[in-house]
Amino acid sequence: MKLSILDQSPIMAGQTPQEALEASVTLAQLGERLGYTRFWMTEHHDLAGLASSAPEVMLSYIGAQTESIRLGTGAVLLPHYKPYKVAEIHHTLATLFPDRIDVGVGRAPGGSAEATNALSDNYLQQVYKMPDLVKQLLRFIDNMGPEEGANPLSAAPVPDIPPEQWLLGTSEKSARLAAENGMAYAFGQFMSDNNGPAAVQTYRESFQLRKRGQTLRQASPQKPQVIVTVSALCAETASKAEDLARCNFVWSRQKDKGEEKETIPFVDEAKKYPLTEEEEKKFEKMKRNMALGDPAQVRDQLLEFKAQYEAEEVMINTIAPTVEDRLESYRLIGGQLL
Questions:
Q1: Which of 55, 67, 128, 130 reaches 20 to 30 Å from 121, CA-CA?
Q2: CA 296 to chain centre
Q3: Dihedrals phi, psi of 195, to nearest 5 degrees
Q4: Helices (H), 97-163
């Protein structure tokens, strides 16, 4: 079974942002040793407790300290940027680390309204242009210039093996956009209440091959390719895993209530945090929507997600109160499925 990692560089209690970013390197190295397929980093802006605002910078740092695991932006938030620059960045990474780079594209703002305004003057207009932005990016990735009949323009350096192209989303709209452009599709189950299997089915039924430029090796898929991204937390016992999940839930509630917490609370602190009856129901719902428990339980749940989505690959996002808890979770899951 193909397993991959989605990392947000969470800042643990007692950590500095530098230590959180170094922990991402450690996680990527562990994933490589265990046989995980990919290591993607998210893009978030001015969000308390998350250090990953520039995944493309981190990927170059991680690439220099790993040898084989694929590295990707999951996702670069395209409405904030010009497609040409995004192509240049990923072409540079693909030149440095041949046949290891993925460009994952999303359209979310990635942070507060203030952060969005600081990044882009016309974010909403750019969101409306997302289909055109995707097409422009793919033409540059395929080394076909900005548009049909335009003067030649390369996003240099043009690598021998272009980055794999993924569209990340949580809806049928994103599924159709990926299919129409012949892109691989990553469905974010961990952050969606939508009917994910239906969106993936739409993607498969609508998938179209696209015309590509001349490269030594094509990186866009010849058939539909799906990743389902799932929250997962594994520990030696189910009770410990639930305690770790409570830490993440309490952290999210604290942020929602404006109780600014830069780091995830430890287990003892999370257990003492009072939850209302409604919040307890939300916690139960969160647990049902993730892979949670001891190694055998998490194995079975991840296999069920894979079957439900008919996905070629499962990507895991894990938030826990300590680096050791996160590493152990990935280690235990890898021991069951890799």
A1: 55
A2: 25
A3: -80, 90
A4: 113-119, 123-128, 130-141
Return the ∠ at Cα 52 (arms to 51 and 57), rounded to 5°. Answer: 125
DSSP string, 196-215: HHHHHHHHHHH---------
> What's the CA gap between 162 and 152, in Å, rounded?
18
How far is it, in rounded angstroms, from Cα 235 to Cα 244?
9
Q: pLDDT tens-digit profile of 27-82?
A: 999 999 999 999 999 999 998 889 999 999 999 999 999 999 999 999 999 999 99
* pLDDT tens per residue, range 190-217: 999 889 999 999 999 999 987 665 444 5
Q: Are residues 151 and 158 in contact, defined by beta-carbon separation less than 8 angstroms?
A: no
Tell me if 212 sits within 8 A of 144, measured CB to CB: yes
| Beta carbons of 299 and 333 less than 8 angstroms apart | yes
Query: Low-confidence residues of the chain, pLDDT below 70?
Result: 148-151, 211-220, 260-261
Token pair recorded at residue 157: 């350096």
Q: Report how far Cα 29 is from the mean position of its chain's Cα atoms.
A: 17
Q: Are 68 and 31 in contact (CB under 8 A)?
A: no
Within 10 A of 15 (CB to CB), how many other CB atoms are there? 20
**Among 328, 292, 319, 247, CA closest to 10:** 319
